[in-house]
Amino acid sequence: MNGKTFFALLSRDAHVARRNILPVLVQNLIQPMMFVFVFGRIMTGSGLLPVAYKNMLLPGIMAITMVISGAQGVAMPLIAEFQFTKEIEDRLLSPIHISWIAIEKIAAGMIQALAAGLVVIPAGWLLIGSGLDLSGARPLVLVSVLLLVAMLASASGLVLGCMIGQTQIGMMFTLVLGPMIFFGCAYYPWSTLARFPILQKAVLVNPLVYASEGFRAALVPSIPHMALPAVLTALVLFDAALVWLGIFSFDRKAVG
Amino acid sequence: MSAGLRTEELKKVYRSAPPMAAQQGFMFGASRGGRPEKKDVEVVALAGLTFEVQPGEILGLLGPNGAGKSTTVGILTTRIRPTGGRAWVGGRDVWRETVAVKHLFGVVPQRPNLDFALTAREILTFHGAYFGLPARESQQRAAELLERFQLAERADQMVRGFSGGMMQRLSIARALMHDPAVLFLDEPTVGLDPQTRLVVWDLIREFNRRGKTILLTTHNMDEADALCQRIAIIDHGRMIACDSPAALKASVPGGWLIRLRFSHSTPELAERLRAIDGIREVRPSGDGAVDLYADRGGALIPAVVGAASTAGAEIHDVHLSEPSLENLFLLHTGRGLRE
Fold it and tell me: Is the pLDDT of residue B17 over 70?
């Protein structure tokens, strides 16, 4: 690997992200924050939902925000750059193996996902108000889940960015991200699906389930959640598979 | 430092539509089984192309759209994987030492592919950074190039609003940022106004004077004639001829081409035309059309008219063309560069 080139590619992405920081933040945070406000504050404040729901909700929102911002942050520019303008060409010609450019994309997406995820905690705190009780007792678990979920988000973005064309972006939201979010156990813990046994098994193919459950295990361990070793194993396996598939499809897409 | 280029029996067959890097560089070949399904379409872009560019030379790849020019550049610049054959830049195998080879060349694409998320200056400095240039040196080189390419005034603007000529100049500046030994220019002046075209030609000549190797693709004969020390004429992914512009032009019998169309063409007419002093070759090309290769142009027309009326044929169209690469291309392929 060529360290200088890798770092230059990464700093180009960081530079572009800094330049677009406001629109990116608005794009990634407004929707989850509205959700936090409506369900975490209005619904619990009016008594429609129990106050404990606040603690169940925030880890899930963190998972959604990270996955969406990381995946979009990698996929959307990639889809555009591979299209008509071929903007990525100059980077593909830089003196580094093509696979390292894919890995750089994953690294840049991870940073973006981590930043978005970490913003959710203070923002959620402000919006949800009293009654939020996050635990800081398991910092190592939190860091591991943060990193694994960031990689999950970013690698999914790489896969989507290489496999989807500009005309299919709408479909990507409707058919991939939509179901992923609603069946990702972000708005409800996985254990609550016990009454729907088929659904409870089916959602296990959705990596967002492990992200949401992982953040619950890290931030509010008192809420029932999936066993931590199972969560971590699943996240590691999804990460490995998506990273491999992402690099493979990037290589195929990049070289004619 | 100077480096040459070499290809050996390069082949490229696309199983689907060619990538954007090589569009305008393909032809439709035989379809397996003749079924109309998309996956059965085979596109033969290169059918065994061998050529060499000496260090410090400007070689022009001349050919019509679809000849395989962009695919050749794509393979030499690590962007398109060949189906067969090998390619070397500076003695290094393009597909075995890809990263080392990437250090050696700069590319000016057919269509500007500038990074729209950056300003003109950033495009240059980030390019420098990708190639490991220290930040200070990168800044300095970028400033020099922006000045020389008359882009300094808009250096800190995003490039989205740049004109085609500005984008093309910036593309060339970017390719020069890391001072490569070899420059690939893929149709560098398509869509440029005549004035900008001359500026680009000057830049190419100046770069070459510093001992750099240039591979230029074009379907513009004047451009090939004006810039290149040697020209390789390719069509359907094959080499047709390769020599200096003067030698190539001299290889056309007589040099001049008189294209005629008669009401009808008979063997007697061909015989009579062949007998005219100054006409070197007569080639009937169907439907009353006859191409005459001759050592003179207009001066032969009265004799041609005489021969036609003796043979009972009426002339419908006459086209005179002075010695040119177009004539050469026509001689070898039976069709014009622009057809």
Answer: no
Which of A2, A5, A87 faces B115 most closely, judged by CB atoms? A87
Domains along chain B with CATH numbers: 5-114+162-249 (3.40.50.300), 253-322 (3.30.70.100)
Q: Which residue of B has its CA nearest to A3?
A: B132
- Assess if residue A256 is contained within a domain: no
Q: Which value does ipTM take for this structure?
A: 0.88
pLDDT at A103: 96
> Do B78 and A5 lie within an 8 Å CB cutoff?
no
CA distances from B54 to A77, A166, B112, B230, B245 (A): 40, 42, 27, 10, 16
The answer to whether B227 and B197 have CB atoms below 8 angstroms apart is: no
- Judge: B117–A77 Cβ closer than 8 Å, yes or no: yes
Q: Which of B99, B103, B174 to mutate to test the interface with A (most CBs of A within 10 A)?
A: B99
- Partners of B78 on chain A (C-beta within 8 Å) are 93, 255
pLDDT more than 70, % of chain A: 100
In a domain, A181, yes or no: yes
**Is there a domain that residue A136 lies in?**
yes
CB < 8 Å to A10, chain B: none
CA distance B175 to B237: 26
- The answer to whether residue A41 sits within a structural domain is yes
Q: Are B168 and B109 in contact (CB under 8 A)?
A: no
DSSP per residue, B229-286:
SEEEEEETTEEEEEE-HHHHHHTSSSSEEEEEEES---HHHHHHHHTSTTEEEEEE-S
For residue B222, pLDDT over 50 is answered with: yes
The pLDDT assigned to A75 comes to 92
Chain B residues whose CB is inside 8 A of the A84 CB are: 20
CA-closest candidate to residue A152, choices A114, A183, A120, A96: A114
- How far is Cα A65 from Cα A31, in angstroms, rounded to an integer? 9
Contacts of A4 in chain B (CB under 8 A): 129, 132
The alpha carbon of residue B21 is apart from the nearest alpha carbon of chain A, in Å, by: 8
Range 94-153 of A in CB contact (< 8 A) with B: 94-97
